[in-house]
Each structure stands twice: as C-alpha cells, then as structure tokens.
Specification:
- The structure is a single chain.
- This protein is of the alpha/beta class.
- It folds into two domains: 5-130 and 297-338, 3-Layer(aba) Sandwich (Rossmann fold), CATH 3.40.50.2300; 138-296 and 343-365, Rossmann fold.
- It is 40% helix and 12% strand.
- It contains 13 helices and twelve strands.
- It has a six-stranded parallel β-sheet, sandwiched between helices.
- Strand 6 (163-167), helix 6 and strand 7 form a beta-alpha-beta unit.
- Helix 2 (46-61) packs parallel to helix 11, helix 5 (138-153) runs parallel beside helix 6 (176-194) and helix 8 crosses helix 9.
- The longest helix is centred in the middle third of the chain and has 19 residues, at 176-194.
- The structure holds beta-D-glucopyranose.
- Beta-D-glucopyranose binds next to loops.
- The site of beta-D-glucopyranose has 11 residues, from loops.
Length: 372
C-alpha cells in the first residue's frame, strides 16, 4: 500500500459545490450550431455502446448534428477518427479516451480550430487542451468494491481472518484505473496492516496488477497464473478478488472455474466488478461467481456531457461541481462528478430494472460480449 491518496488525487477528493467555471464561451456562442463529434473507446463493453447511442440521441434531440465513432481499443484508430471529425468541422468533441496520454497532438489541432473538448468519463492527460471533464467519483468506486469484500468476509467480526485476497487494477493507460485502485487499497489498508487480510502474491502495486485495455482475457491469464503459483498446494484458500470492471471480473471467474472452483459454493471467492453489464448482473442475481458490481448511471453522465454542449451553445458556462481533484499534468480540469452505487443480489432489481437501465429480458438473455 504505497501510493498516498494525497499524491494521487492532488487535492480535495470531495465533490465540492463549486459554481460554474471554465472557458469564455459567451462571445463565440452566437455562431455555434452544436455540431459534436463523439469518440467512444470500445464496443466490447455494454456501457460504451449504450452511452454512444444516448449521447447521440440527447444531442440530436437538441437539434444538433453529430458524428459517433468507436475506436475499438486502438489508440491510433481513435486519433484518426478524431482528426476526421475535426476536418468535418465539429465544434465540440466528447471523448472517452483509449490511451489517455496519446491525444495531445490531435487535441492541439482541435484547439486551433476553436473546438471545445470534453473529456468523457476518463481524464485526458498531458495536454492543456481539455476544457471540461464529466465523470463519476472514481475513487469511491474502489471504496465500494473493497467495502463489499470486507462485508462479505465479515472482516470486522472479532477474530475474523486471516483472509487471502488478490488485487486487479485496470488499464494502465486509463487514468481512472489509479483512482479505482487507490480507493480499494486505502479501504483495505487497515485490514492488511492488522493481518486480517493477506495478499499472498504480494502484488499490491498498480503495475503488476494492471490489465491492459481492461481485457477479460488478460485478467483470466493472470488469475490462472496466480492460482497456480500461490494456491495450488491445496492448503491455501483464496477468499476474494478485487476486480475493477465486470469484464475483468468474468475473466477472473472463468479462471477460478477452470481451477476447479464452483460458483455459488462456499469455496468460491468474493468477486467485485463495475459497470452493471447485463451478463454480470445475471451472475450476481444467480449467484454465479460475481457478487457485486458498481453501477454508474451512464444516462446521467451522458446528460452531463451533452448538457455542457447545450450550455455553451446557449451562451452559458457549463455546470461544474469540482475544480480541485482532477489534475491532468497541465491543470485541474473543471469537472462534474456523479456518484456511483454498489449493486449486489439485494438491490440489483431496484437500482437497475426499476430505473429502466436494464430490462429483466436483457439480464436473462445476456451474452458474453468479450472474447475469451
Ligand atoms: C470506466 C469504467 C469501465 C472501464 C472499462 C473506465 O474508464 O470508468 O466504467 O469499467 O473504463 O471500460
């Protein structure tokens, strides 16, 4: 547990109530039509496919023209697509980055043409050309995942443990990964310090635990290696896995199954997740390995980002609620952050189905979107 939260988060992590802030948009708004390029990172995860559509709809409903493209987890492809959008004259870019450090050059070109750049969900780093950030409290995501593990293990009960857990973090080129991971580490720290929780692999840093491009297959491979190396003597049991995203969680679960553990039994470790992907919700409902996910209502996130565009077109400044948390190497990017919600077998229906985020049919009929 070596990274300090302060170093990581640069400032207050709280969602401070901050008045509108940002660029001077008033003068140029008269000429704006709202033409927006939406650049999403991947189609192998439900959330991004869904959000692309929602963003497009929200902007079209406001009467704006849009271009929606998916970078398919290929940073070069995303840069080309963004370049194409700039050439076609977009006034706004909403970008869910693939590699958060690779966009400096193309965004400089966008800025030359006065494009307003909204970093969507993932903070774009190492460039002064990001105007706004729309996201969730990413640190809290990791806190919720770790709390679920502690809860399920009964780690606060007298004499509890020692429990063995292993940690996974997300893609190293996505700045969100460190926030999720740090939230998890900080929450577990007291328990690892007291010995209630042990991490037999001793892999507690971001680098060895990372999962390039959030790939479930890569996570499955690493979980298999960990099981062989640290859990194959038949004596040591694995009690939980901190997994940051549903696709990674399922890779972990498939590796655990291949190792001979049966989902739904006492021996199966607690596995966390994020994004409320339909198939993971099915697993949670049916007790099939994953027991938690973190729901980030991406309809609200899309509304924040499209609302930023609408405000600027209307001659106003976008609404912001955080000015001091997300430093991108050049500046604290004015942000609007939403709150994530922990989902388990007790509240999935209320939070996801009653709110019409998912239908029961989608959960019933969900199929694995990734290749394993
Ligand atoms: C998002 C998560 C998502 C992950 C993988 C992150 O940047 O914040 O919601 O699970 O990417 O797509």
């Amino acid at each position: 547990m070596h990274l300090s939260r302060r170093r990581l988060l640069y400032g207050s992590a709280g969602v401070a109530a901050v008045a509108a802030a940002g660029c001077s948009t008033g003068e140029k708004s008269a000429a704006l039509t709202g033409f927006t390029g939406i650049s999403m990172p991947t189609q192998t995860s439900d959330r991004w496919v869904f959000e692309g559509g929602v963003l497009e709809q929200q902007l079209k409903d406001a009467g704006y023209e849009t271009i929606l493209e998916y970078g398919d987890d290929d940073p070069e492809k995303q840069i080309k697509q963004i370049r194409g959008m700039i050439d076609r004259g977009v006034e706004f870019l909403i970008i869910g980055a693939i590699d958060n450090r690779s966009l400096g050059e193309v965004l400089a070109t966008a800025k030359d043409q006065d494009v307003t750049i909204i970093s969507y969900d993932r903070l774009i780093l190492d460039t002064p050309d990001v105007d706004y950030y729309a996201s969730f409290d990413n640190y809290e995501v990791g806190v919720l995942q770790a709390k679920h593990i502690l809860d399920q293990l009964g780690a606060d009960e007298p004499g509890a443990g020692p429990f063995n857990i292993e940690l996974f973090s997300g893609s190293p080129d996505d700045s969100n990964s460190q926030y999720f991971f740090q939230g998890g580490l900080d929450t577990l720290e007291r328990y690892t310090y007291s010995g209630t929780i042990q991490i037999p692999s001793e892999q507690t840093e971001q680098e060895p635990t990372s999962t390039l491009r959030w790939s479930g297959a890569i996570a499955m491979e690493r979980m298999t290696e960990l099981l062989e190396e640290y859990y194959s003597d038949g004596e040591r049991r694995l009690h939980a896995v901190l997994a940051p995203y549903d696709g990674i969680s399922r890779g972990v679960i498939y590796a655990l199954e291949d190792f001979g553990l049966e989902p739904g039994t006492e021996e199966f470790p607690v596995v966390t997740g994020q994004d409320a992907e339909a198939i993971s919700v099915q697993f949670i409902r049916d007790g099939q390995g994953q027991s938690q996910t973190v729901f980030k209502d991406t309809r609200d996130l899309a509304a924040v980002a499209s609302g930023m565009v609408k405000s600027i077109v209307g001659g106003d400044k976008p609404q912001i609620n955080d000015l001091g948390t997300y430093y991108n190497g050049f500046k604290f990017v004015p942000a609007y952050l939403l709150e994530p919600v922990s989902i388990d077998k007790d509240n999935w229906e209320e939070e996801l189905v009653d709110s019409e985020y998912l239908t029961i049919e989608q959960v019933d009929e969900a199929e694995e979107p990734q290749e394993f």
